Amino acid sequence: MKNVIKILGVFMLVMFTAISFTSCSDDDDPANNDFFAGTYKGSISYNDGSSNISTDNGSVFVTKIASGTKYNFAFSNSIPDLNGVEFEQQGDNTLVSVGSTVTSYIRIDNNDLKIAYAKDGKIWTANCTR
């Protein structure tokens, strides 16, 4: 009888763990979560005048930082990160960087990341999906 209870307990623990992991989906919305972390994959590039990095198979790891309105962008392929970019919500599920202009624009939602960002003579671009 003790073995049956142990087996049943282990089975329930495994089921609870499996359900917990499957409930965390990639469809998390960056606009409506207190904490957000997600990887977007696609074409990325960086140019600072002396180096030019570009790939169609890059990735950008996006995290929402403690302030609640600022995000960090960690690029693959040795592209420098963009940190502390402030966003405002536009519509139900879209974030757009504060102060967006033609030369400085980042748009993020639960499926797409678009970056055309210029700062101090450096240019980052990304056209990625999740």
Q: Please tell me the overall pLDDT.
A: 80
Shape: elongated
The succession of helices and strands, N to C, reads HEEEEEEEE
Rg is 20 Å
Determine the N-to-C terminus distance.
48 Å
**Structural class given helices, strands, pairing?**
alpha+beta
**In what order do the strands lie side by side in the largest sheet?**
1-2-3-4-5-6-7-8
Low-confidence stretches: 20-27
Main sheet: strands, sense, barrel: 8 strands, antiparallel, barrel
The proportion of strand residues reads over 45%
Keywords: Signal
Signal peptide: 1-25
Protein name: Lipocalin-like domain-containing protein
Organism: Chryseobacterium edaphi
Summarize this, please?
By secondary structure, the protein is α+β, with helices and mostly antiparallel strands. Helices cover 16% and strands 49% of the residues.
